[in-house]
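Case study 2.
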Amino acid sequence: MAEQKAPEMKATLGLTGLTSNAMALIAPGAFLWLTFFIQATTGTPTTAPAMWWGIFLALLLCLATAVAYAEISKLYPGTGSSYYYAEQALLSKDKAFKYARVAKFIVGWGSHLYYWVYPGVMVATTGIFVGYVVGFLYPNFISGSNPGPVFMALVAVIFSFFVAWIAQKGAGASTAVNLAINVVQISALLVFSVLALGYRVNHPSGSTGFQYDAQTLSTYTYQFATNPKDGTTIRDGSGTPQPLLDTAGKPLPYVVTYPEKDSTGNFLTHGTAASVVSPHSFSWVFIQATVAILILVGFESVTSMGGEALNPTKHIPIAVIASLLIQGLMCYLIEYFAANYFLNSGYTMQSAAGSAAPIGDMMIMVGDALLGQGHGKYFMLGEAITVFLALIGTTLSCMNTGARVTYAMGKDNEAPEHFGILHAESLTPRSAIWTLAVISAVLGVLAVSLVFADGSAPTDATIAALPHGIFSSFGYSNHDTLAALPNSLLTITLTSNFGTFILYALSCFLCIVAFNKRPDYSVVRHLLIPGFGLIANLVCMAFYLIGPFMGYGTSKEPLLALGISAIWGIYGAIYFIRSSKVKGKTVLLESR
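Prediction:
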């Protein structure tokens, strides 16, 4: 009887398929909506004025890393991305080959801090997003601005397994979904950018405009009446803010202004376009970059699909660079400029810090300006559909990438062997995919548990106004308690990002090693550019310590992220040593 061959991946992806998979992971439709809130609350005091520059720095870092990936993928096309590159790069060197196994395990284990945590961030943000939309549609059930942790956690769990179900069907199904989603979400977010810029241009300081109310998720053309004792907005029985009246008893129209800070020093708006693209403080830029890296990672995902690429040596390098340039340069920098420039006295950065979905709020405002007051909700809901599609594509792409890196380690017997087995029909690493789904669900639940803590802690009045119930108010204590606790979403995000910096720094280093003394060596492409990427990644990692100890921004979340990363590294070292002994493998290779 003939011996049956183990299932192997089939080459089905061309340049378009590879690029769309990478672009889906760098989804501006999802991240502009979801990470604006995280970036608005990063730092005490906030570092949000440097948001655009933080993204620009992260983009430069990623471009340098992308060049390293593109170059090294020409030499070693295959499944496993940097994990595979580490082994091949070291094996090609006469003196360093003995470190090949150690190097590939370090890269593979470190990359899992990114690839296994990142999907958890995505399912958590999906929970927040769905909570916002449901709260908008059913305000008596749940608050859109501050959804209940239990509700968000339930959505995160369901979404995690839903995406895993798509992923286990194969790369072909995933690519078709990602291609359609890319077209829709890029178009939708560019429309928002145009409208946001238009609102700012048409509402100079002193003109009448809209004021946004977070409790009712609606805009109003009048000034709000406030209680002289505590400054809270006076509302009627339905929660609608009451107008401030003039001497004739008529509502005073709301006048738009662009104040930089409030009386306590909190940042509010950018007075000019130049302010948006100014660094304000270089320490703030680096802190923002440690968060902004989340929205740009993913360009390297196609390097894990070498086994499914029709022409990997030609198409993968192009897909790596193209995906980052299209999403990062053409989408993010434009969209984040528009969103920051839009901020005004009717909706400030402090408003964004207190909302589950600041971009959704802005969409309601610009929609009201375009379609008429009260109709902006239709524009927001239409955009929300595209964001949800983008979330599916993003989470799907990162699950596919993470599962394939785990598969490569399992196939090499550096991880439990069942991870290295493909399903006979779909030819996907289903064991790795479903394991990742469970991990993502757990991390998603943890991430939303204290998403409104630290800098995003709501006021006691806001908490008191929440609808009562296990899905709406359970998990909220009081402002002081929440403000003293770390923000769980930011903590999980920074943990994932630290894994990203580790992986990208090592990948840049591997590019330098791989091309050293080769006849096709280029000083620019194989030393200067990856060298810059290596240094930039290391500097951003250093800011996890520098920031807290120098008093730059928040302290609890980056230190917690460092602690989690350290535990992961220690556990990896113990696992590697024990596994080597059990399997009879030498740590250092004796021959190639």
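The chain has a mean pLDDT of 86.
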